[in-house]
Write a structure and sequence with these properties.
Helices cover about 40% and strands about 15% of the residues. It is of the alpha/beta class and about 260 residues long.
């Protein structure tokens, strides 16, 4: 059966995708997949110099420029940093997005991460993937999407949960061939790169991304890698479609 080759990355903030899964998105784009990056917020808290409206305009444009490198599209659900809520209005926005995009694959944040926005985004994505097909959830100008997407959780920031314990990936994608485009996408977020550069006087923005990607690669004998876990709960598809699509670039590891 032919599948809709669309992948949705639904994360909390602009630049989250570039840190967590942009290399994999680039590989899928090379395979003919349409890429959509959506964020819960426009990142209105991401500046010490500009007000929320001003920095939001900049960060939306940066996110759009980044995904444009993959000929993809950007959407923002227009929540606010720190105030991303697991509530009906936010869920309806995410359900509407999934019904309109009709993704076969969805990437989202780790269920446990350093920041509550990430954790709530993860729960929102999980619920929306299932709820998008429920006919009695009525949203104007949408119809139920009767395919539950393959759902993957990206690694948490630094690969740690809220208690500082390591979260082990069981799916690894070799992004050695796309690390350069991943870096270019990250560098589109100039406002955040400049902000951290001013604070630390070191280009930690790029360094942190490449260092973590190298660390993940070392866990599975790749030069650079991104790690994932797949949601395999009842009703969600359990086949590892990343392996099917990317073949030798995907390795699995089951920890005892």
């Amino acid at each position: 059966m032919e599948i809709n080759k669309t992948v949705l990355c639904l994360l909390a903030h602009p630049d989250d995708a570039e840190f967590q899964c942009a290399g994999t998105l680039a590989l899928l784009a090379e395979k003919g997949w349409e890429i959509v990056i959506a964020t819960m917020t426009p990142g209105q808290a991401g500046s010490t110099e500009l007000g929320p409206k001003e920095i939001s305009v900049i960060r939306r444009a940066e996110a759009a420029s980044s995904v444009a490198l993959l000929d993809g599209k950007y959407h923002c659900l227009e929540c606010e940093d720190v105030f991303v809520m697991y509530d009906q209005p936010t869920l309806l926005k995410a359900i509407e997005l999934i019904r309109n995009i009709k993704p076969t694959i969805v990437f989202t944040a780790s269920p446990s991460d350093y920041m509550i926005d990430h954790e709530v985004a993860s729960k929102i994505a999980m619920t929306a993937c299932l709820a998008a097909g429920i006919p009695n959830i009525k949203i104007s100008h949408t119809t139920p999407y009767n395919t539950i997407p393959y759902l993957y959780y990206c690694d948490a920031m630094e690969g740690k949960d809220i208690l500082g314990q390591e979260i082990k990936s069981d799916i690894y994608v070799d992004i050695s061939s796309t690390i350069d485009i991943k870096e270019k996408m990250l560098c589109c977020h100039k406002s955040q790169r400049d902000w951290l550069l001013k604070i630390s006087r070191v280009d930690e923005y790029v360094f942190m991304m490449k260092n973590f990607s190298r660390k993940k690669g070392g866990e599975i004998n790749f030069e650079y890698a991104e790690g994932f876990r797949q949601h395999r709960g009842f009703s969600y598809p359990s086949k590892n479609i990343l392996k099917s699509e990317l073949d030798r670039l995907v390795a699995t590891h089951h920890f005892e």
